[in-house]
Amino acid sequence: MIDNLLTLLLPLTLLLTILLVGHKWLIHYLGASNTYLLWLIVPLGLVIYCLPLPWQQSSLSKIIEIKRYLITPTDELKQSLSMSWALYIWLIIVAAMITYCLLTYHIFNKHLQLTAINKSMVPLVLPQNILLYQSTGTYSPMLVGLVQQKLIIPEDFFELYSTEQQKLILEHEICHFDRNDIYWNLIALTCLTLFWFHPLAWLGYFRFRQDQELSCDQLVLARKPKESRINYSKALLVAAQSTPSLAFAQLSFKKYGDKKMMLERINNLKTRPKSSKLILATVIFTTVTLLSGLSYAGNQQKSLGDKVAESVELKPIQRVNPSYPEQAAKDNIEGSVVLTFDIMTNGAVENVAVVNSKPAGVFDQAALTALKQWKYSVSDHTLKNALVQLDFSMNKDTKHESLIERIQITK
Predict the structure, then answer these.
(1) What's the helix, strand, coil split of the chain in %, to 5?
(2) CA-CA distance, 370 to 372, in Å (whole number)?
(3) Which residues contact residue 316 at a Cβ distance below 8 angstroms, ignoring those fewer than 6 apart?
(4) 33 φ, ψ (degrees, to nearest 5)
(5) Which uninterrupted H or E stretch holds 103?
(6) Predicted confidence (pLDDT) per residue in 303-346, tens digit
(7) pTM of the entire structure?
């Protein structure tokens, strides 16, 4: 598991660096809404990096018939042997983060003290699937709930804000609801839990949540007059004076709204950014191209070690590397297996059997399983009793004795 996450560190770092370092530039030229949408390139980019793209597929190399063949533990097996302690630490911290989130969510809901109220009490028509509640345990409007979402307003909501401010604040929460932001937050939190050891993952998560609020502000005020922007800014200042509870999967009008963030939100309201679709498309295209290039380069580098010279002799067109037995790798055991097999006219390998092995029985099954999957090029003749020796080594420098008997005939 952890080795797969480490493989994704390079593309993850690249994506987060683009979004964090270029954030001010993106906000200025794309606007808050498009910048928020750009966070989608993080999960999508990781998927693209993992996909076997058409130009990444390398054809099987034609290789000569071999008498000796070296098998070493795969990189994955070596990593699992040398990094088992890291896996345990990673799992412990992941479990701790999940426990903390669930516990916080439980405590938060316990202290909400909800009272259901009629939707007609608010000066705005709410979506049918939202339930409206009033709470004495919070100080800011918010959305909670994963299955049935609830819009919660504080008990002094109607006293703190004017009618227009109430409408604007509720539109802000409806924006979260319409975009299913609670579920996107859950995905973001899951990614943060998996990559807790990456500093940029934490910075990216908090920036993502802040952009979420900025984008809702922009959407709410997209076609509103200047007076509405002023009223909305005043509502932000009122909310900044309170201290709402923080909780798992909570969306709040003041969520991630410390003084610095509130100032950024107010400054963002002063202008009407003109988003450029051309720049947005350029950023997405550049990012996807970089990820594809990285993935292609990695694939090419990996395939270099698989290429061997061609020969006019029988050439395997499919050679499956035996898997190094995990227990043997753990015990640092090395050895060799000699097998005999027949190559049929259609290239299939049949009648595979172990002739000799050292140590006996340790690598036999792995060698048999792999050799049975070999396939040679089509020929006009059947080759009987071909021999091959597979040498299993923990590293490529180990020298193995030949187990194939050689007899020299002299006069």
Answers:
(1) 50, 15, 35
(2) 6
(3) 62, 63, 65, 374, 375, 376, 377
(4) -65, -45
(5) helix 84-110
(6) 443 343 333 356 678 888 888 898 888 888 999 999 889 988 88
(7) 0.63
